[in-house]
Amino acid sequence: RSPQRDGPPHIERKPGHGNREWAASTGLARERSAGHGWPKAIHPEDLPGIRERWEQSTRTQEPFETECRIRRVEDGSWRWHLGRAVMLRDPSGAALKWFGTCTDIDDRKRSEEERTASLTALGESELRCARLVKSNLNGGWLRPSDGRHLDTNDD
Considering the entire predicted model, what is its pTM? Predict the structure, then answer.
């Protein structure tokens, strides 16, 4: 569960309490997550942005969303999470409290990073091949295994 605070001024503005899964994952029991305890689980580089976005959401009552790293107590690793919170309202539209979730997205983030690295490496490899073809005085061509024609040395 992501850090949650109740929203409008007439509602107490304090971080919400974690559930059993939060406590098992972070090692922070409900009592330690309340108040100012929850930041202990957040990566220090991510905390300033989270605080800024949270303050903006509590001022505007707009939905809160962040991606951040949370320390897993089991092995001390940092895992990426998507935190979201929305203001719950009564039938008349009056603000009641914030409701939030925190979803582990670490596998997705790592896959995205690997894909970006692979695409970068592929682009660099194609660039090196194109330079090699262009530098070949006897002529040559660049055609990957899929049959596409990428480049020819016309010189």
Answer: 0.63
Whole-angstrom Cα Rg for the chain:
25
Mean of the per-residue pLDDT values of the chain: 78
Burial of 47 (0-12, 13-18, 19+ CB in 10 A): middle
Dist CA 7 CA 33 (whole Å): 18
DSSP-based three-state secondary structure for 16: coil
Q: Do the beta carbons of residue 53 and residue 67 sit within 8 Å?
A: no
39: left (phi over 0), alpha (psi -120 to 50) or beta: alpha
Q: How does DSSP classify residue 67?
A: E
Amino acid in the structure at residue 152: T
- The answer on pLDDT for 110 being more than 90 is no
> How far apart are alpha carbons 6 and 16 in whole angstroms?
7
